[in-house]
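Supplementary Text 2. Reproducibility record for the structural model of the 423-residue chain.

All settings were left at their defaults, and a single model was retained for analysis rather than an ensemble. We include the record here because the model underlies the residue-level annotations in Supplementary Table 4.
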Amino acid sequence: MSTPVIPDASRERPVGRALAVVLALLTVFGPISMDLYLPVLPALTGDLGAATSTAQLTVTACLLGLALGQVVAGPLSDRLGRRRPLLVGVAAYIVTAVLCALSPSVETLIAARFLQGLAGAVGIVIAQAAGRDLHSGAKLVRYYSRLTVIGGLAAIIGPVLGGQLAAVTDWRGLFLFLAAAGAAILLAVLVVFRETLPRRDRTSGDVRQTRRDFRRLLSDRVFLGSVLVIGFVYAALFAYLSGATYVLQGIYGLSPQGYSFAFGLNSLGFMAFGFAAGRLSSRWSEKGTLAIGLTLSLAGAAGVLLTALAQLPLPAMLASLFVLVSGAATTTPPATALALAGYPDIAGTASSLLGLAQFAFGGIAAPLVGLGGAGTAVPLGMVAVAAAGLAGVVYAVTIRPGTRIVARAAAPDSPRDRVATGA
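Retained model, structure tokens:
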């Protein structure tokens, strides 16, 4: 029999408004890096003389960088604290954004985007880990719901702003804008962000200790299931992010500005459903809310595939995409809370595996939607249906059945040992 988790009230610390804003800014690293230049991706493809699938590798490279960077930054922040790795990561992000702007070929841009993803990953993983440093219980779920909402807001601002900037500059100018945004975030971190992980709570050890921490996490069925669910759901989401610009502009004839507003409408759904999921999870059931999100994701993916096969008009495609991204938003807060609730001592390492799944699975899915060329949305629908369906299978096998006992921390009888339910 497993024992219910007791909220760790000693970890609850007040969070000032300025720090909350900085954590929000760190959260937008990924979405802004991904979304700002999506409206000009077709123009970038022509300017660099690249094939559609090759140009989409600029998306994949960033996603893979975001995935791998978190695996490094998460454990490092557990040992060194959150602030020092964060400062290095944000500074590197500025440099890599400039490298993207100066890229002379699509191959150089792909490499620069990978480096940009590595740097941007630091902000994402530390925003999640700092939340676990400061919150527990229902407050932790609400914190992750706020991160989801903020990510949706960035997804709205990114393509809308990118579409408007495309009227006055080219894709190189958009990357220079990202460099300027990174500089603003670096200044905010220097002024506001104070260490959230006290020295007494930091881990010690070398790479072998990190491997032991990873084994500890992956031996927990509910943690592993939550990671895979988020990975597959984000594969469907990033298939949408990569393919929607070609579908909505190339097939349905929207302008970059029209695409940015259609994208913004879907992101409004992402925000609204992400916020609702946090409230519903804390008041009702994390597992139940997760099941609702997976159902929405699969329904939206099926709608995209049906619309593509039957060549239905634009409203059908927009409605299907709206349901798909809203389902992804609904799954994120409960799945993240289920994964991280039992691991306050290695929150950075645990967050890094979540980030790895999100962006690695997304990076694999993104180029697949371009294999059929720019004239069809069928590959987008097929990838989304397969990913959402696999997420549902993982949920049914690993998360839904029952409770879990989180593995012991490194030291026996450590006060960091946690036992948690899967509900």
